[in-house]
């Protein structure tokens, strides 16, 4: 479990194919690895990865085919800058929101503009995720816990203050960039809960989920 508060920006130094999946080597920059051991989790651009080797300058982790299919890692190459966060401890200050590191899908930056000292981004999510993104709700973008400030269909707006931009990879985001999206886990559990006994059916349809939510008044 993570909070979406980025601790450091690292750099992918190698991507090595291993059959149908890959392993990645990350230079962890200023991230303190003194308390990290093999088997620990580090969110890497929002993807929960298990450390399989410590290199002295960073770590090596394996990415499964499922992870490659769900994330923007297929677009990455050595030199790619990535947001890093170690798994939270029971004593960690909870500054963001609950982030599992299980990326739902990939979104795309569609615009960037300056508003005072802040940067405004509009991001297009896949249509299948639109119902989980709400104005003033939380979303993780490349592992960063952020507040949704406006919604129009499957597109949503983020307002990024200078500190967040400088401490993450967001200062380099441009239209066309693919980003890892993780919606608020509470929304997913709520949808599943509203299915009731229907949840035991094999592959309940999204239409059934929407109908039950509408019947209960959650969709207005």
Commentary on this structure:
By secondary structure, the protein is mainly beta. It is 15% helix and 38% strand. The protein has helices at residues 65-70, 162-167, 185-194, 206-215; strands spanning 8-18, 21-27, 41-44, 47-54, 58-63, 81-86, 105-115, 118-124, 138-141, 144-147, 150-152, 155-160, 178-183. The strands form 2 sheets. The chain has a 7-stranded antiparallel β-sheet with strand order 10-9-13-7-8-12-11. Strand 4 and strand 5 form a beta hairpin. The radius of gyration is 18 Å and the shape is globular.
Low-confidence segments, given as residue ranges, are 211-220
Structural class: mainly beta
Strand order of the largest sheet: 10-9-13-7-8-12-11
**Major sheet:** 7 strands, antiparallel
Mean pLDDT: 90
What percentage of residues falls in helices of 4 or more residues? 10-25%
- The fraction of residues assigned to DSSP E strands is 35-45%
Rg (C-alpha, Å): 18 Å
Q: What is the number of helices?
A: 4
Identify the overall geometry: globular
Give the strand tally. Answer: 13
Order of helices and strands, N to C? Answer: EEEEEHEEEEEEEHEHH
Summarize the model shown.
By secondary structure, the chain is mostly beta strands. It has four helices and 13 strands. 15% of the residues lie in helices and 38% in strands.
From the structure above, extract its key features.
220 residues; 6-stranded antiparallel β-barrel; mainly beta; single chain; 7-stranded antiparallel β-sheet
């Amino acid at each position: 479990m993570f909070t979406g508060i980025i601790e450091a920006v690292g750099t992918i130094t190698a991507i090595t194919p291993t059959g149908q999946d890959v392993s990645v080597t990350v230079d962890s920059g200023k991230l303190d690895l003194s308390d990290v051991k093999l088997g620990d989790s580090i969110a890497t651009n929002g993807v929960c990865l298990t450390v399989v080797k410590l290199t002295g300058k960073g770590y090596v982790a394996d990415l499964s085919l499922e992870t490659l299919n769900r994330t923007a890692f297929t677009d990455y190459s050595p030199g790619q800058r990535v947001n890093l966060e170690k798994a939270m401890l029971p004593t960690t200050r909870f500054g963001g929101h609950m982030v599992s590191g299980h990326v739902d899908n990939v979104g795309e930056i569609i615009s960037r503009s300056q508003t005072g000292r802040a940067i405004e981004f509009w991001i297009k999510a896949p249509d299948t995720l639109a119902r989980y993104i709400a104005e003033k709700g939380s979303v993780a973008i490349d592992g960063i816990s952020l507040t949704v400030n406006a919604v129009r269909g499957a597109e949503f707006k983020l307002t990024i203050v200078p500190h967040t931009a400088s401490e993450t990879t967001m200062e380099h985001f441009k239209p066309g960039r693919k980003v890892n999206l993780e919606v608020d886990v509470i929304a997913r559990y709520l949808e599943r809960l509203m299915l009731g006994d229907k949840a035991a059916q094999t592959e309940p349809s999204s239409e059934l989920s929407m109908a039950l939510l509408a019947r209960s008044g959650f969709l207005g």
